[in-house]
Amino acid sequence: MQIAPSLLSCDFSKFGAEIERMDKAGADMMHLDVMDAHFVPNLTFGAPVIKMLRKYTSKPFDVHLMISNPLKYIDDFCDAGADIISFHTESDSNIEETIKKIESRGVKPALAIKPNTKAQDVFPYLDKLYMVLVMTVEPGFGGQSFMADMMSKVKAIKEEAKRRGLDLLIQVDGGIAKETIKTAADAGVDICVAGTAVFKPEDAKEAIDELKALCE
Ligand code: DX5
Ligand code: ZN
Fold this sequence. Notes:
Elements: E1 2-5, H1 15-24, E2 30-35, H2 47-53, E3 61-66, H3 70-79, E4 84-88, H4 95-104, E5 108-113, E6 131-135, H5 151-163, E7 169-173, H6 181-187, E8 191-194, H7 196-199, H8 204-213
Parallel strand pairs: 1-8, 2-3, 3-4, 4-5, 5-6, 6-7, 7-8
The chain binds D-xylitol-5-phosphate (DX5) and zinc ion.
D-xylitol-5-phosphate (DX5) is lined by residues 6, 8-9, 31, 33, 64, 137, 139-140, 142-144, 173-176, 193-197.
């Protein structure tokens, strides 16, 4: 299991140091939650901040766009150093065009779905995607409870990808903790985003090691 710490739970006054801390703790990638106070009822940071953070780690930047018009800003996030860009099927941008734009910049495209969105909504795009992000909480805030019933969507997407012979990764985001990660692993999840579970404990390395061990 790969672990992607969600920087939403970090101390924003020490953003660079927090990324270095997660790098040393064994994070597989950095999950950066971009919110526009329109697509979700919260506001975080944008491309200029991500660009400044790029120098603190060589690990991949997994940028999760919770914004209404992702297509308009893809160039900015690519220029800022994103390696993976996830955007939502529920956003206002044309999905095909947005995937194409991300791909044209040499960045890995991913589609994200909110809890009320069907797994089947991503099926038309599976062959063009690097990853599908299945939200296990309503996007907007850290520290919410894991929705285990989302695992049926993980399994459905995984199965469809397998049927087509695709190498697709599945990520879940929200409520991942010691008590819930095994459920995600058993459903076939490849990457778990974790905010509270890795930033709250004093020893982040221990927390990440333990989460990974629970999946074996
Ligand atoms: C929610 C964000 C998540 C969130 C996860 O909109 O996309 O990345 O920070 O936080 P935890 O792990 O605390 O649920
Ligand atoms: Zn996220």
